[in-house]
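Hey,

The postdoc asked me to send both predictions to you directly instead of through the lab channel. I've kept everything plain text so nothing gets mangled by the mail client. Protein one:
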Amino acid sequence: MSDRGPGRGPHRPPRPFRNWVQRRQGSGGSQGAVGAEAWPVLTVLCAVLALWYAAALLMNLDQARSLAGEGAGTADLLGATLALDRPLLPAPHQIAGEMFDSIFGHPVSSARSLVFHAGVTAGAAACGFVLALVLGIGLAVGIVHLRVLDRSLMPWIVASQTVPVLAIAPMVVVVLGTIGITGLAPKALIAGWLSFFPITAGMVSGLRAPEPVQRYLLATYSATGAQVFALLRWPASMAFLFPALKVAAALSLVGAIVAELPTGAQAGLGARLLAGSYYGQTLQIWAALFMAALLAVLATGAVDLAQALLRRRRGGRL
């Protein structure tokens, strides 16, 4: 007597078993996809490290030869090349060691701590980012709803980004300094000036993204301008806002670092870079550069997290 239930094929396994097999196959497939994506990244990373070590050996060889003396062997010479205190091009392990010592070797409140300087720069960049966010969204809303602003402001907004930040930063610092505004405000202003453009451009595109048929549909329901904005234009702009925020977050960090250079600041990654260049501390310079890159990664990661939370709240899409 057969134990197959009604409607079940002659060789079809039970549904719980099929579901378990599908889950296992799906997880294996996803792991394989992750591995396939990771291999190219690791390959490029290994190639960059190999080229970096080769360049460090070539650039630091003369300095190591002068310090090691004429009787030094090849192994000693190569070892000295990768262990100089002030190399022309530090090796990756030297930069990693300098970052480790600067982060964990000093209290966070110490001026020798890289975390302290990163916090100062991150604070200025965050203030500039908030300023750029408010200004960019406000300008975009005005440009979309008022044709006069579209014709008068948009060309000037585009032209504002053609001025090099290295040229305008000293002028902003000097002008604000003459009226008694120093410290965080000039750095935040420069960071906001550099990062408001992608937010404005992205929001203008996003607020204009809804199709005419969608606006006509709301018009048939006698929707007001505020209702069209809240129900149609603003939700549609989110898909454009978050990519713009990623760019703006990185630009605000660049603006904060550049703003620290002409101010003669005693704290911040820009001040760290400037002090390293004055005293020939190349390890300090490269450690500050990598810390700045790490801050940029964290900033874009925070934007990605906010985007994921909003997507989850809106049912899986922006």
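Protein two:
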Amino acid sequence: MEPDGHWEGRPLHGGDGGEGEGVRFDLSENTGPLGPPADVLRVLECARGLVARYPSPYPGRLARALAGAYGVPSECVVVGPGSADLIYRLFAFLAPKKTLVVSPNFGEYPYVAERFGKEPPLAFPLLAEQGFALDFQRLLGAASGVECVVLTHPNNPTGVLVDVEGLERFLEAVAASALPPWVVVDEAFVDFCPEASVTGLLGRFSNLVILRSFTKFYAVPGLRVGALLGSARVVRELKAVMAPWPMNAIAIEAALAALEDFDYPFRVRMFTEWMRGLYQGVLGAIEGVFVTPGSANYLLLDIPAVQGRLDALEAALRAEGVRARTRLWGLDERFFRVAIKGPDALGALAAGLEGFLKA
């Protein structure tokens, strides 16, 4: 049976099943481990006045605030109700005939590439035996003849960062071609490692588009806030076909409040880094469990014994009140992703894995 609220035929996502009976720790959902900033909660408590009036036809104040946070000109930012919405708008605008999607990846990309393109997307597989590192020289060869290349940074679901210098060389190489492909870099989780962001390349490459998710880091996925960064022309074209009032007033004010909490990012990053090391150590010590070191707020686990027994794994985790993100696009079922939360969640996850492996 499909999770409540899931659209038939669409990619599955973390948190798709709602709260779920008996689920105490939903590790399928990659939101910040500390919950929303206190200022966001205060906005929500006082939201009655916001719902009685129209929001801005376009949330320019939020766009300017995000531009300042990301270090890019405001004319290079368009905001919308979540980065997923902006992905759909982008592909409807680009309509690339052939798209190359680095695999594994966020499942919406192969879906939208097929829906808005003229040919099924091509997959460029990252290899587990190479630590899921992206070889840009190989990618350059595979990208010949395509109109769009999509990658996530850090990768979702592995958490592995791309080599920024390698990406820069790749962009320089494709820029020399007669028809440079669009290069879409999804940085939904880069707020957990902001020094790795590639926004500094935007001014040099007009075919580069970056997606940012506000709601992952600030743990407010129900508000739906995202941004797309690109050339002024791309942003102008996307805004021209947006309906008025693309975001509700509560989401706008909550996002602005979160950006004014300058202590919150530091606390989230410190806590996530500490817990990530703890999760890697505890889970990696379990015989039969292999952990891919990552840089975001989740980890990719590889358990060869899961192959052909995924239902048994999910049952073992459910017995401990845990839900993980299984059935990942581009990976065998032995791989699954878990969000980094607190120590109680880690204890329940470890117990579920040990119970499965001993069965």
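Summary for protein two, as requested: The chain has a mean pLDDT of 92.

Thanks,
C.
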